[in-house]
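Good day; I would like, with your permission, to put a structural problem before you. What I wish to show you is a protein chain and, alongside it, a tokenised description of its three-dimensional fold. Here, with my thanks, is the record as I have it:
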Amino acid sequence: MKDRESGRKIFNISGRGANARIEIDVALADKMSDQQVTEAMELCPVAAS
């Protein structure tokens, strides 16, 4: 998911397999609207329900 203003990635996956990590740009995540948060949750395979 990308920030709508800057086009920069908010979430990024680095590594593969057991070494995979989800990285979050906290500054961009803090600016997400409620709608963007819902979209991110729906995209995430491990999102809270």
